[in-house]
Amino acid sequence: MPLVTIDNKEIEVPAGTSVIEAAQQLGIYIPHFCYHKKLSIAASCRMCLVEVEKAPKPLPACATPVADGMKVKTRSQYAIDAQKGVMEFLLINHPLDCPICDQGGECQLQDIAVGYGGVESRYAEAKRVVSEKDLGPLVATDMTRCIHCSRCVRFGQEIAGQMELGMPGRGEHVEVMPFLESQVNNELSGNIIDLCPVGALTSKPFRYHARGWELSRRLGVSPHDSLGSNLTVQVKDGRVQRVLPADNEAVNEGWLSDRDRFAYQGLYADDRLTVPMIKDNGRWIEVDWATALAQAAGALRVLKETHGGDALGFVASPAATVEELHLLQKLARSLGSSQIESHPLERSAGRGQARWLGMPVAKVNTLDRILLVGSTLRSEQPLLAARVRAAVKASAELSILHAANDTQNCAVANAVIAAPSQWLAALTEIEQALKGASASAEAQAIAASLKSGANKAVVLGAVAQIHPQADALHTKAAAIAAACGATLGFLPVGANSVGAAVVKAQSGDVFAAPRKGYVLLGLEPELDCVDGAAAMQALATAECVVGLTAYKGRAPEYATVLLPIAPWAENEGGLVNMEGRLQTFNAATRCQGEARPAWKVLRVLGNQFGLEGCDFDTVAAVRAEALPDGWLEGLNNAAPAVDLGAAVAGAIEWLAETPIYAVDAVTRRASALQATAMAAAPVATANASLLARLGGKTTLRVRQAGLAVELAVRQDDRLADGVLRIAAGHPHTVSLGARMGVLEVEA
Amino acid sequence: MLTNESLAQIDREIAKYPAEQKQSAVMSALRIAQQEKGWLAPETLEFLATYLGMPTIAVYEVASFYNMYDLKPVGAHKLTVCTNISCQLQGVDAVVAKIQAKLGIGFGETTADGRFTLKEGECFGACGDGPLCLHNNHTLHTRLTPDNVDAFLEGMK
User: Fold this and answer.
1) A560: CB partners within 8 A, 6+ apart
2) Residue ranges of chain A whose CB lies within 8 Å of a chain B CB
3) pTM for this structure?
């Protein structure tokens, strides 16, 4: 390995290491703008010029590989003169608007200018002015401040896999811009805000809200997908002002999806529930906690005594914490109820099984072969999609089985695009092809791909888990994985789906038969259940519905008692992510109004019933009971024993996915995310031949089991024939009933 | 979007590179498209991006970098006059003044009848024969003087 000397310190590093990386290992900081450890080398800012012995001119440390015996000086007069020269050029066109710039105080250019900038500018000519670009509701631009480091452009090309920004023009006329007037429309776009070393790209929702130094920082865990990205939650005046990534190579690699980054706005929605309320003769009145809890406990007790424990149903969001779910199931079981639901967006009969990714998240980057079954990956798990992209870039072959051939922003080796009812048959064909039997060309291609390569995975996504034949798909996928030596993995739907199953917060079938009483924890049943309409009907007929919720939403329609609980930034607890990693977090801000963390509410509710073992003082004590030693052994992807029954096929099948910004109550209320193109009102999309069969209309009245909605229609030839894609989890499509069903279209 | 002849020409350029390096043909493709269309409209860039399997913005980066690609409509005759040092020393300024007076337009402008566009060019590498003017990117006119400009422009009617 080459031995180099940097500032008189020697270090041995692998060949190919750049000088800037070697210096970093020695703890020597070399100023830079365009260099970023996760992106390719551009060497365009020239800030990292250093003196290299025997080199005829200063060399950029980021683009200079080490050589044996190389002697580098980063702080010699020669190097500093070069760096100061570069700094002077960078400042020539940079406006002196730091006082009104959002980046002020956390700006690399500002910091480095203090060290290397002149006191006065020698440049007296007119400065360059660049017209503003509208990049959409998330990223604000001040392109005059841009120093052309091209980090944002490289991020799009290399990490997001979608080059939306470029640098057209030449010389002084170069500008960072999208093509024509288009906006940035990528699920990872917020990362360019962090990457921008100056104030050219800043956060639009955060704009002019606070200075970096006024914000206190708390670590958090994102509850919007089952990756559990690590967050730095920044708070001022008791309000979350901004969310930034926290570095965790094993989870989010320093990136954040836009959903993780901007969902915090939903915490301050108008319909936050901040006071306990009870329904009194049809009128909602605000009461104190004691009254509300007594009312809730009293009503539930009466129902239990008259109708038995199973008359009570308990439903929780899969993003609720381990502690909350543990206390909820404890409460349910002690009341004699086996009706506990914490996987409301899954159809598997065995959804109480703790199904997980089957491997560490970081291993995804090293996979050679991936078969993705029923996953709209980019909206389900935006950052896992980035890892899959990295794997594909490093020569992995990605095969997909889905009803829509969406762009994955990376090369897809094989795709079987079929109506959901055909998926089981498609998997069966792949299994047969693996065994050497005759099968379709696509199945043969996927089988051939899966036979080669060393590290392989068959992964089932959210659509596969809400599929009417979820268990059968699981069984077949397991058979395929076994036949080719792949790991079988699941992409859990909720942030704590795995934890919920581990603490056994799943049994029975809560909405199959309407219950007399319900306890709801942190979900909006009409949007967060497989069949929102049926759930609402069951709730409407119930005598007592206790809603533990952070938002009013439609709860006043069905609830009898509303208890305000803390949403994620005000809450504390732990979440178990898709790889079985328990991540705990403390509250970043105080609870709004009278809201309380749900674990405390459930504990007091337990006390009301005089339950034993409910006297926890801290959330850690609850966690210790919920997750005893060895809990990780509960993770299990074994296929259930099921009868692979025939599919329920119809002329038109509903591809019902949850849109990226409709996954939970907080996200649905995040105004900037809701203003993006990806959160547009649902339309029905279908391929040309289905549209022709439907008479080429511009709006359709779609019906399922007596329920109907009217939707605009759009053509999308990436869809399988016979599939109508309509976003679920949206107020407008609630009344379509059970997801992934068979639809009728009214003439 | 483009005629079969143009597409055949582009395909011939693509064939010069490995299959996964189709985008290497972008400069030729832009030239061929411009030759047919007269200029490179946004729709043309989008078409070429799809044809070459590359992001539209990347095509735009190339098209906006080079002088000879026109991103706005130009007249039937595009005259690019070199104003660099060699042509300047040989009296191009007087030639430009004459052309501008005759056509009634400045650099970067097109005559109202859409026949002439005047552009300022960089060195064409034929300084020995300056002052120089490039006609429609393909024909180089040499040794211009204020006196022979009239005949030169007449010849383009």
Assistant:
1) A278, A279, A295, A299, A543, A544, A545, A546
2) 162-170, 177-180
3) 0.93
